[in-house]
Amino acid sequence: MSMRNVTTGFVFLAALLAAPASPRAQASSVRMFMSNGYRAVFEDLSRSCEQSIGRAVTAQFGTSTSLTQRINAGEPFDVVIMTTEAMEDLGKAGKVGARTALGRSGIGIGVRTGARKPDIRTPEALKAAFLGAKSITYAGAGASRPHIERMMATLGIADTMPQKTILEPDSVRSASKVAGGEAELLITLISEILPAPGVELVGPLPMQFQNYVSFAAATGAKAASPEVGKALIACISGPNVAATLKAKGMERP
Description:
Blueprint: H1 3-18, H2 23-26, E1 30-35, H3 39-53, E2 57-62, H4 64-72, E3 79-83, H5 84-92, E4 100-112, H6 123-132, E5 136-139, H7 145-155, E6 165-168, H8 171-179, E7 185-189, H9 190-193, E8 199-204, E9 212-219, H10 226-237, H11 242-247
Parallel strand pairs: 1-2, 1-3, 5-6, 5-7
Antiparallel strand pairs: 3-9, 4-7, 4-8, 4-9
Helix pairs in contact: 3-10
């Protein structure tokens, strides 16, 4: 390398190091905890919302139960999105500020992409689908579990289904079981079925068994930048997100 090239390289490096960082690089990212049920909606909105607030968002996902455990253990966070029931508990404990309703999703059935889709339009058809399936899976700690188990009891198959049920820690792993052919039917929120790779939505549960899980957002009581957190929540809850909610299997609460 010539001396001229070396000198030019040093000049460029010095200029690069001396250049002021962009405002976004200087600011710390917004730390967010988020339930898997709202993940697909947020991922669709994240880029525009980051641009809107001038900060990057670092999101960590899980069930509302697992996220609540982390918050109660003292992990820091700026914004949290989870089920309204779990958020109520955090509010009573003084862990979060005012809550903002975001959307809700019903429960549905998913199968491996390309697999035969059973008839689930009536309680009788749904019961036959469950009894005919080699295996089913859902999240053991998911918000849908109590509703799923009540449905099984109402259908009169609560004693039969545990033998063919694969419980997973969360819906992501349940969906992976179906995509990989280890389980035949996935039962979880529609908003968790639609974005799952290798899985197709069969349809929603019949109205007799349908239940909606609602989600809300709030800033943490000890958020590093509460105003930035509020701006982020405003971005993901505004009137312009209705189309995204619908596309991801959710609706306004």
